[in-house]
Amino acid sequence: TSEFNLTDVLFFCRKAMENVVDDDVTKRFSPQKLDSWNLLTRNNHNFCHISLRLKVVWVLGLLLRYGVLLPLRWLRSCLSDKVHLMGCHICVRSLSAIITYHNRQNKPQNDGICVANHTTPIDGIILANDRCYSLVGQLHGGLLGMIQRAMVTSSPHIWFERAEVKDRHLVAKRLIDHVADKTKHPVLIFPEGTCINNTSVMMFRKSSFELGCTIYPVAIKYDPRFGDAFWNSSKFGLVRYLLRTMSSWAIVCSVWYLPPMNRKEGEDAVQFANRVKSVIAAKGGFVDLKWDGGLKRARVKEAFKEEQQELYSRLVVGVSQGADNAASDSAKES
Amino acid sequence: MGSRASTLLREEEIEEIKKETGFSHSQITRLYSRFTSLDKGENGTLSREDFQRIPELAINPLGDRIINAFFPEGEDQVNFRGFMRTLAHFRPIEDNEKNKNPTASEPLNSRSNKLLFAFRLYDLDRDDKISRDELLQVLRMMVGVNISDEQLGSIADRTIQEADTNGDSCISFQEFIKASLVEANINNTSFNHLTKKIKILMGAFFINATEANLLNKLA
């Protein structure tokens, strides 16, 4: 028996009508239909005039979108800087910090790296009070990480994942790219790597000085009579530190902007770093030390003792050696 | 604030369509929104290309014939009224309609109007008869290349033989209705055949259960 029936066509009819009424494909190629109108004309295919009140609301919405939101988004970067400075002013007031900026004509430009001596985490706020910087650092988890991620949305900071920190080439590349972009803020780096108590400047790590960028040195000197800004991280944590700082008389500091420096021909990164360090030490009245700030927590390397031994050996052996050399030299000359 | 002011649907029009087709107010506005989104030329009418643009309709074996059913005799454009009138044939019969005033004119989605719609799919030349050729044409559209001419011919012959009561080798509308009633007198075996067939056909169209009765979504 045949399976065909005259009314089989009705099945195809029904399917066709269903597709005429609604199909899965064509509706994907026009804006999504919303359950209730979002007051954007671009979305209102079939919304006819509903009421005067709605029209008024729509006009207000139009004014808001074109008059406020659109310009704001255009002016975003310029406004973002202003907002940052304002935020910093507020922070500074909350610490009762009295900051004197010297030599403002040397203020860091967008094309370099700003280095300063490090005494406290507040150093960043003290400097950012005068212009915006891009910070460098490791991405943390928790609240600090959240703050770091939030900061990135408004201006470009350089945060590294923990794994990337070890990769020196990656770090260097990112820094160089950032500095090359003239629209981005100067990078703020504290080459000591740790907080020192503001009486001396210790060894500057050479990584920032290898990059070949312009260095803007800054010296920050706190007046110890009004409050101790130094964060002794081994003794107390950040919260206690802030409590101590906010309950001092005041934080009084001077900031000296020093003229920009570049690496000289034939000067290696270590020598350049030392040169910058001595300039900062001289301006701030600090003792210029060659010792590594990392000695706060780590032991000194054996290599230094070996260096002493080698120097002494040269003295012992080299005195006669030197005399012989001098004799032979004079023999050659004559 | 509306779209394309010249084709806006006025309240009076909605009322007229409601009376004629039996769709509710919200169904009519939703279908109007669908009509305008299909109307790419934005001139208030649909052409055959506008329908063909729906992929699922374009792959329907009877798609061309069904699209044709929307267009009045010899015309190439269909307006919203015509669109609704055709769709109305497939509006589900609601319970409250069954007890309606018997003197009122027959609703568009009555059983006999549905069957007339199906009949007209076969009867291209509108002579109120389905000839063997017309039946073969529709059969060929539905099966494509998968069945041979002889087999298809024998199916057509058998169908006409079963349905034709007055011996003119054609199926008139009355004979058509009677033939469909026979199918509706379901005994167990033919019902199983029917469900099996529907399942196979459903598979071919990738229907899932939620999609099955789309018109009800408008309710």
Can you describe this structure?
The complex is a heterodimer of chains A (334) and B (219). Chain A is an alpha/beta fold and 334 residues long. Chain A contains 10 helices and 9 strands. In chain A, the strands form 2 sheets. In chain A, strands 1-8-7-2-5-3-4 form a 7-stranded mixed β-sheet, sandwiched between helices. Chain A has a two-stranded parallel sheet with strand order 6-9. The longest helix of chain A has 32 residues, at 302-333. The radius of gyration of chain A is 33 Å and the shape is elongated. The mean pLDDT of chain A is 84. The two termini of chain B are 27 Å apart. The longest helix of chain B has 18 residues, at 188-205. Chain B is 57% helix and 2% strand. Chain B has a two-stranded antiparallel sheet with strand order 1-2. Residues 1-6, 186-190, 206-212 and 214-219 of chain B have low confidence and may be disordered. Chain B has one domain (2-215): Recoverin, domain 1 (Orthogonal Bundle), CATH 1.10.238.10. In chain B, helix 8 packs across helix 11 and helix 9 (132-143) crosses helix 10. Chain B is built from 12 helices and 2 strands. Classes of the chains: A alpha/beta (334), B mainly alpha (219). Chains A and B meet through helix 1 of A and helix 2, helix 4, helix 5, helix 8 and helix 9 of B.
